[in-house]
Amino acid sequence: MRNTWLIARRELASYFTSPIAYAVTAVFLVVAGYLFWVILYYSREATMRYLFYNVTTLLLLVGPALTMRLVAEERRTGTIELLLTSPVRDGEVIAGKFLAALGLWALMLAMTLVYPLLLKLLGNPDLGPIASGYLGLLLAGGAVLALGVIASTVTSNQVIAALVAFGLSLLLWLTDALQGIASGTLGSFFSYLSMSTHFYDFAKGVIDTKDVLFFLSLIFGALFVATRLLEARRWKL
Amino acid sequence: MIEVEHLTKRYGDLTAIEDLSFTVHQGEILGFLGPNGAGKTTTMRILSGYMPPSAGTARVAGYDLSESSLEVRRRIGYLPETVPLYPEMTVSAYLEYMAALRGVTRPDRAARDAMEACGIADRHDTLIGKLSKGYRQRVGLAQALIHDPEVLILDEPTIGLDPRQIIEVRNLIKSLGGRRTIILSTHILPEASQVCERVMIINKGRLVAEDTPERLTARLRGAQQLAVQVARPARETLSVLESIPGVLRVHEQEIGRYEIESALDGDPRPRIAEAIVQHGWGLLELRPVGMSLEEIFLTLTTEDAAEPAGQAPAQAAPAPRRQGGKAR
Ligand SMILES: Nc1ncnc2c1ncn2[C@@H]1O[C@H](COP(=O)(O)OP(=O)(O)O)[C@@H](O)[C@H]1O
Ligand SMILES: [Mg+2]
């Protein structure tokens, strides 16, 4: 646990010494702000529901950018050799890296809290759905980032790591599109697998335990797979 | 302290180390000498817990490497060959991080002590990416020492340093011995003999020889070749040189130039010089021809008529292994 925290802290600090974190945060905030005003202008509703949907699209791009270097860069420069020969479990390494990315994502979300504040000044928004929407974004972000950690573990090339992360996340985001192709149980299974299905409720203002569990199992499952992959990589160094 | 038994590592078809067995005693400085590709880094990576062997076992400080990797890693300080560091961190931040990862209770104090020991205290606030090669090497050493480990594994710790830095690092390593058990790899024979109490020579993944540096050097000196040049060679020069005690063989390379192979015991150089001067042939040159590592391995392996190293790994014949320097 302590090791996880140590690794997460170092990783978070190193985000802020690289231009990537600043660039990603800046792009995210600019686009999110633009979307906020456009949606507000057309809908004239004090709601953030539509913004949440759009931010998930942004997440699919931002997530891989946050996770691509986590393990891949250590592998490229060789620093992983000292990390993996320290008395630290592989699971702690993966968890620490993940938490650093999640921390940055949470920070980025926190910076968008000015928009609900603006809505509060301009109108009378329902705060419940806004809170649940933010929870949904945090959980969906966690899932995308955990998938990104997997991608970063299998390669030492950051670009490949980002592409694999994007591909994995997009597939899991859109499996509900297969609902129409397969019918019956298989169709609903595809729908169940889809992150967008589970995010939908959060944006509407509903916090369903099933949705929360879905995202949590996705996060833990992905981190477990990443840990196994990291262990397996020791065998074929 | 370290017991290695039948360690083998294969990368696909390539056998990097084969059936390596050795022990290192507490407080000993063991040199791991071999040319590039001998399998030094592979062995050290296995001992440090970075990767598992294909076969064989290793125990460090009483813990089996495959069963209690974490316990072993707690007790080891490791300096990888490439000295991988985080360029965006300052020296002290990096060392405190490494100390904390190794479970040190006061990382700040440990970092300060390690910087002091390695002579980098004046650079504690410098970004690692801005350090010179010599300083980076010392930061690497400092992180290996930071948790006061029982065992130090140093992979070519002086590679890429300038001569002055090499001497400093060697002295530093020597000063660390005694209490700690140290394995250090090198492809430079003089380095192994200066720093280490015992030297293991490996070539192509196999143990070729194991001895104290003094006895190894003695064995090698015997096999050393001398280059001799005289100004006025006579008809009988060759036979006179051949008859000198201690001279095994003389090759006349060109008129007046000879290559002399000398025996194991006794340095024949004074007698050679004397004979040449007595006959008035005009001694121009008499110098030992340094042997390359490859020649050293060849000498050591053929001395015993052992099988040539690095052949037919499928036969898995035990590598020639000896204790004590035999004189011929
Ligand atoms: N990751 C790897 N994959 C495949 N072959 C490797 C790998 N690492 C080392 N080797 C090979 O194993 C042999 C031993 O290498 P190494 O242990 O690095 O030797 P040394 O450190 O003595 O120079 C070499 O032939 C090298 O090419
Ligand atoms: Mg090496």
- Spans of chain B of at least 5 consecutive residues whose pLDDT stays below 50 are 303-328
Total beta strand runs of chain B: 14
The overall number of domains of chain B is 2
Strand order of the largest sheet of chain B: 6-7-8-3-9-10
Q: Helices and strands of chain B: which structural class?
A: alpha/beta
Output the radius of gyration of chain B: 24 Å
Mean pLDDT of chain B: 84
Q: What's the rounded overall pLDDT mean of chain A?
A: 91
| SS strand fraction of chain A | under 5%
Q: CATH homologous superfamily of the largest domain in chain B, by name?
A: P-loop containing nucleotide triphosphate hydrolases
Global Rg of chain A: 19 Å
Q: In which range does the helix fraction of chain A lie?
A: over 70%
Portion in helices of chain B:
25-40%
* N- and C-termini, Cα separation of chain A: 27 Å
Beta-strand content estimate of chain B: 25-35%
Count up the helices of chain A.
Answer: 12
Gross morphology of chain B: elongated
Number of strands of chain A: 0
| CATH fold annotation of the largest domain in chain B | Rossmann fold
For the record, the CATH class of the largest domain in chain B is: Alpha Beta
